[in-house]
Structures are given as C-alpha cells and as structure tokens.
Amino acid sequence: MVAPSSIPPSFYRALDLRERIALPGAERAWHGDDDAVLGALRLERHRGLPGFDGPADYEQRLTTLGLDLDGALALFSESDDSLAQRATSVPEWAEVICQAYGGDRALRFEGDALSAVATPLVDHAIEAVTAEARRLSAEAQRVPFDPQTVATVMLSRLGNELGTMLDRTLVLEMHVARLERRLSGETGSARFRSYLQRLAEPGTMMAIFDEYPVLARVLGTHTQQAIAAGSSC
To answer: What SS3 state is found at 18?
Structure first.
C-alpha cells in the first residue's frame, strides 16, 4: 500500500468534477482563497472539450452534478494541497504510478527507445498478473496456462501502448532539457542516451508526473486495465 502522504498533491488535480464533489469537505472549495484566475482558465478549457454542445448544454451537465458555473469555478480554483487534504484514500491509478516509479532507487529501462521508460509499469503489471496466475494454479488441480509465463504473453503489447502515451510528453521534455543544456554529448544520439539516463535517475519520472498528473492517471489506469484483463483470462 502507498501512504497518502507519499502521493504528490498535484495528482489530485487529475480528479474530475464528480470525484472532487465526492471528497469530504467539498464546501471548503466554495469558500477557499484559492486561485480564481487559474480556475477560470481551467473552466474555459473544460467547457471547450469535445462532447459539450454549447454553453447551455455545459450548464445542463453541471446541473446533473448539482453544480452551477460558480460552483464549478470554485472547484477548478481549488489548490492541489486543498484537494489532497480532502482526500481520504489514494486513487488506485496513483498507487500504481508510485509503486512503479516512486522511491529512491534508479529505474531500470529495457531498450534505448522512449517506450523503454514504460518498463517499470510493465514490470508492475507482470508481477501482479503472475501473482494472480500462481494463486489460481495453487487453487486448481489443473490450469490451461503456465503461471510463470502467462503474464509475459498476456501483456506483450503493454510496453508499446504505454510508450505511445508517453512519447509526446517525453519528447517535449527532452527538447526543453536540450535547450537548457542539461544533456551531455556531442551528437544527437549521445544526448538522447543522456536523456534516458536522466529519466532513470530517482525522482525524475515522478517529477514529470507531478507536472503532468493527467498523464499519470492515463498511464496508471491503462496499466490497471491491462492487469484486470490479464488476470481474468
């Protein structure tokens, strides 16, 4: 289990409106002193998402949540720390991310492509599915799979799927690191290897997820779904 105190407060920024309302102390958001300017920007961005058919439709959707525009603005204005304080448990996707990338150890990447950065999540999924396969094998006299290898087979595409989700953000961060002269090497390939080495350093990926909490949620959720699918087959 991951302690709530070990979850970056920014991760709670990835909660949707329904989840924010469900947290205890929601009324605190309505009367806080948080950043209304930032909240207004988030509200406008949210209103512009696909699926809303104009302002009237958006306000109707808010009504189904028991909100009006002022209530939505208050929730979008709430600080990360305030959300974290209201949370009573760690989201499962956040727990997956912290178990895979947290701690003070250097990460192990397999390969020299950006998709290799997903290795800790793949390892986490393989460990979870293997544990379930062994449990089923111990309970049943006969199972139609090898408990030692089934996870690797079932999750053979997970690394590429997660890598695709990571690519755009990691490429952006690599260019930022290059412009800030934080990469070593005289050639492009050498600087790329330097970038992968930096990503493997303790805390680097968690710092990226701190900046991109929605990406963390997408990756953690997809890994959870892969574990569930691999454990049910």
So the answer is: helix
